[in-house]
Structure formats: structure tokens, C-alpha cells
Design a protein that fits this description.
Layout lengths: L2 H13 L3 H5 L2 E8 L7 E2 H13 L2 E8 L3 E2 L5 E12 L2 E13 L5 E12 L11
Parallel strand pairs: 1-7
Antiparallel strand pairs: 1-2, 3-5, 4-5, 5-6, 6-7
Length: 130
């Protein structure tokens, strides 16, 4: 699986709120950190647990990704995301970046997120994600 294929799968899983599909994108012993200072979710089961909880209040999710920056070795990448949704019925925008490390099969071994959350649905500015 390429980085771009992985990102497309992550996007589909998020928009469809599919915790099982999200879990399949990760290695068995993956580390998933949704906040830099928070505890990690470990393994596919940890990813699924996190996703079931965090997406439960999300509706009308629209996920966009920028062009990923991929390390020469192809095993590390960073990619911006921009998400608009209803969260608990309120319109919100979530923007951030994923820092990713992949195994030889293209499954994610480590994901670290940094993000910002704001009220209202805001479109990205011109040139975002390029």
C-alpha cells in the first residue's frame, strides 16, 4: 500500500465512521496518539476503540487532505487535514496534521496528530494543501 492509498483509506474510514476499516490500516502493534500529550492507543484494537468513541458524535463528515510530504525512504510522511462536520449537532471545523510511520507492507506503525478545533464550517484558504 502506498502512502496515497493509505491516506485515501483513512479518509473513507473517517467519512464513513468505520472503526473496523480504520483499524485495518494499522499494524498489529501500532501506536496511535490523537494528542501530543495524551496517552497512546495501542494496536488495531486500540485504534478501533478510539475511532468508535471519537466518531460517535460526528455526522456529515467531509475530510480533505493536502499533498503529503513523504520521506525519501517512503516509510515516513506528514499530511495536513481539513475536516468539516456536525459534532454533537454543532457545525465545526477541525484542521491539523498527521505524522505517520509505515511498515514494509504500508500499514501505519505510528500516527501522531496535532490539531485545532473551531466553531462553524470554514473552508480552507486559497492554496491550502498544495
Amino acid at each position: 500500500m502506498t502512502v496515497q492509498e493509505w491516506i485515501a483509506g483513512y479518509q473513507r474510514a473517517w467519512e464513513e465512521r468505520d472503526a473496523d476499516a480504520a483499524g485495518e490500516l494499522f499494524s498489529e502493534d501500532a501506536i496511535y496518539r490523537d494528542q501530543p500529550l495524551g496517552d497512546a492507543y495501542v494496536g488495531r484494537d486500540g485504534v478501533r476503540e478510539y475511532w468508535r468513541g471519537v466518531t460517535a458524535s460526528q455526522d456529515d463528515v467531509r475530510v480533505r487532505f493536502g499533498e503529503p510530504i513523504i520521506a525519501v525512504d517512503g516509510r515516513r510522511a506528514a499530511v495536513e487535514f481539513w475536516v468539516t462536520m456536525l459534532n454533537g449537532g454543532a457545525e465545526v471545523t477541525l484542521t491539523g496534521i498527521l505524522f505517520l510511520r509505515f511498515d514494509a507492507d504500508g500499514l501505519c506503525e505510528e500516527l501522531r496528530e496535532a490539531w485545532h478545533f473551531g466553531e462553524g464550517c470554514v473552508d480552507p484558504p486559497a492554496g491550502w494543501g498544495a
